[in-house]
Design brief:
Blueprint lengths: L1 H32 L2 E3 L4 H4 L3 E3 L17 E4 L13 E4 L12 E10 L12 E14 L4 E8 L8 E4 L7 E3 L15 E7 L11 E4 L12 E7 L50 H5 L7 E12 L4 E8 L8 E4 L1
Antiparallel strand pairs: 1-9, 2-6, 3-4, 4-7, 5-6, 5-8, 6-7, 10-11, 10-15, 11-14, 12-13, 12-15, 13-14
Length: 327
């Protein structure tokens, strides 16, 4: 009798411990699932780039009370490419209020964006962000700077603008990417360019979309990346069937197993007496607007007519020209 009570008590104790462990584990899982992450760090935070319509300087560069470009390098006799820890010269010193310790961002406007992927017209100028420089010595009309961080090579003539401290938008771990999600009905745009001119960007890559402040886009917005069903590959499937519905060439001379191929399309009619049904014709019986979800992105920064987006999840490669929709 005592032995049975001991066994029963032991069983209850094991059950309670297991239940607590399971509950605690679920609690930890919930905490992990709700954990927030910096969606943009390192190069993606300070070197994501952007497409901007407004001018970089509100006053003429010669009149602006700030340095505007890099005009020299300590080791310029050895080459013209500069990177982290190199010493450079900017065309602004005590005459423009520059002080030791001041920091500037280095940018390189690449030109006006012209793309067939957007119907908005003039989207602005694509600006490449190259890194951050820090002033180490000030002269009357020039200052020596050190390249504190670089995301790409710096060139003489690159512009410098006041450095702005940035904070990444926060990403919350979410449920698995829904490949069949319905349209949200919110603003839609397209990926018209990607950083480093990649044509098939993937997770953690930076892309630029033609949705901006005028479309009420804000940093931290999630975007679904999609394309029309059956579209978007470099080589699209040939819709012309090469097999007839029946052909005696499929059977052997000896056993004559049958005249039908497993890859042949069906024939029309209840009794299969009509012409074959092709793949292209079968697609006509589905509604317009069917799509495939290929990924998800998050808005890092917003300009007038465009936004910079980091790709956070993918189901397959993303292409320039793919559509985006605010979730």
């Amino acid at each position: 009798m005592n032995f049975q009570k001991i066994c029963k008590s032991a069983f209850v104790a094991v059950f309670v411990v297991a239940f607590c462990a399971m509950t605690f584990g679920q609690g930890v899982q919930v905490i992990q699932n709700n954990r927030k992450y910096d969606v943009a760090v390192g190069n993606n935070l300070y070197c994501a780039g952007y497409v901007q319509k407004a001018p970089f300087y509100t006053a003429n560069r010669k009149e602006a009370n700030r340095p505007d470009k890099i005009v020299g390098g300590y080791n310029e006799q050895d080459g013209w490419l500069y990177s982290q820890n190199n010493y450079l010269v900017i065309n602004g010193g005590a005459d423009k209020g520059v002080k030791v310790g001041d920091m500037f961002s280095v940018i390189r406007p690449r030109g006006h964006v012209s793309t067939r992927w957007s119907s908005k017209g003039d989207l602005g100028v694509y600006v490449q962000e190259l890194g951050v420089i820090e002033v180490v010595d000030v002269k009357q009309e020039t200052s020596w700077v050190r390249v504190k961080t670089s995301c790409d090579t710096v060139l003489l003539g690159d512009l410098v603008v006041p450095f702005e401290q940035r904070a990444s938008v926060m990403y919350v771990r979410r449920q698995a990417l829904n490949l069949f999600t319905d349209p949200s009905g919110k603003a839609k745009g397209r990926i018209f360019l990607s950083r480093d001119l990649r044509e098939a960007p993937t997770r953690d890559d930076i892309v630029y979309v033609d949705l901006g402040a005028e479309d009420n886009v804000q940093p931290g917005d999630y975007m679904t990346i999609f394309r029309p069903l059956g579209r978007g590959n470099l080589f699209e499937n040939d819709e012309d069937e090469t097999l007839s519905a029946r052909d005696p060439g499929y059977q052997s001379f000896e056993y004559r197993g049958g005249k039908f191929s497993n890859q042949a399309p069906r024939k029309r009619g209840d009794n299969a007496t009509g012409k074959i049904v092709t793949t292209e014709e079968a697609k006509k019986d589905r509604p317009d607007g069917m799509r495939k979800v290929v990924g998800e992105g998050m808005v890092v920064s917003v300009k007038e007519r465009t936004a910079t987006v980091v790709i956070t999840r993918t189901a397959q490669e993303v292409h320039t020209g793919d559509w985006v929709e605010i979730q």
